[in-house]
Amino acid sequence: MSLETIETQLTQSDRLEETEWSFTALRNHARADDFEDIVDDVYVLELPEEGTVAMPESLGETAQAELGGGSGVVVTFNPEIAEQFPSIRLLLPGDPLFEALVREAAPAEVDNVEFVCGQRGESGSSVSRSSQVAEAKQAAVVEPAVTSEGVKNLLGGPNSISNINDAEQAVLNWLSQIRISN
Q: Where in the sequence is the domain holding 33, given as residue range(s)?
């Protein structure tokens, strides 16, 4: 999945908006003219009332202090911007804030997509299907598969999501490559 897809999925998530998380593009911020070079790739993330995010005690003249206004966190999905402006938080897997956003944005059950889950044990491989995210997390390997051709290109870009049969075959192939350690 591309960084652009991750950015789009989170910044335009209805589920996040419903739970009072909101992304405001820097281009819509009162100080946008001061940051022309990065306005398209930076956001002020407003947290729900009860939400807190660990921040440095001394913000000084940082992007967080200048743009966050005390109620938001200045974030980007672009590693180059985070490198250029270290006080802008890079939202990628591994960051606790990113993980919290994904947990909030991800539904417990997914429509039009099934997870083909594979396990390998001493008695062989097993493959199952589930629309439950929690069940998919328990599998050794998982391949998402569409149950409707209308959502095959859900992620955008050149790659589409596999159909059920292709996903099952991919999982079985991966499982055949896993060695069981004694």
A: 3-105
